[in-house]
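task queued by scheduler; priority normal; single chain, no ligands, no partner chains; default sampling; output format set to structure tokens
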Amino acid sequence: MSSISSIDTSIYSGLIQDMSAVSGRNAPETPRIPTQNSSDAESIQVDLSSYYSNIRPEDLLSTVGNNVVQSAQDLDNAMVSALQNGYSVQDAVNIKLAQTAYQANSAVYEAVVDISI
């Protein structure tokens, strides 16, 4: 007898019968929840014509640069923490997230530098 044939499959037949009893046309009717019509909502007008008019390029460049520095520090801290903790799965996830944030902030910084020139 192989290891595959020794598996007890008796529990699966009951599951299949239970699933087929509620599928398709035999599925129980769920109550429909009425939704609000979007045309009933009150429309609010917002003036965005001068939204970006008060931003100085120096402020934008320094803010984005600070974000790059902060994300680099977060990546360093995640790697140091992983070394101290013995590199668990959570440490690997933290490093990957910090690396992704650093790469995104770096890409934004490069775009801002290109726009500023």
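post-processing summary
- The two ends are 75 Å apart (CA to CA).
- Helices lie at 10-21, 57-85, 89-116.
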